[in-house]
Amino acid sequence: MKDEVERWFKQAADDYDTADLLLKQGKYSACAFHCHQAAERYPDAFEAVIPAEYYTVEMAEEAVEWAQVVLQFVRQHLP
Fold first, then answer.
1. Which of 19, 39, 51, 75 is most deeply buried (CB count within 10 A of its CB)?
2. Residues ≥6 apart with Cβ < 8 Å to 39
3. Does the pLDDT at position 1 exceed 80?
4. Cβ atoms within 10 Å, residue 30
């Protein structure tokens, strides 16, 4: 049980750190979202690691690229 509590706390701390960075960048809605995540603490999406430890820079870069593709597609099809 102690290990599970530590996993939840580590993810909450990571979400807080992210919220702090977003606040400093003026990204207030994303900041609020990560504050909410820090307060709820749901790191059980993966069995062995917390989400903050699962994703790599390559995975994040790919996610950003796909988000850009989707946004461009939608922008082109807006009335």
1. 19
2. 12
3. no
4. 15
Could you report the per-residue pLDDT of 26-76, keeping only the tens digit for each?
999 999 999 999 999 877 778 888 989 999 999 999 999 999 999 999 999
Four-residue CA torsion sign, 68, 72, 74, 79:
positive
Give the pLDDT score at 52: 92
CB-based burial, 57-71: b 16+ in 10 Å, e otherwise = eeeeeeeeeeeeeee
Task: Please name which of 43, 63, 39 lies closest in space to residue 53, comparing C-alpha atoms.
Answer: 43
**Residue 38 contacts residue 16 (beta carbons within 8 Å):** yes
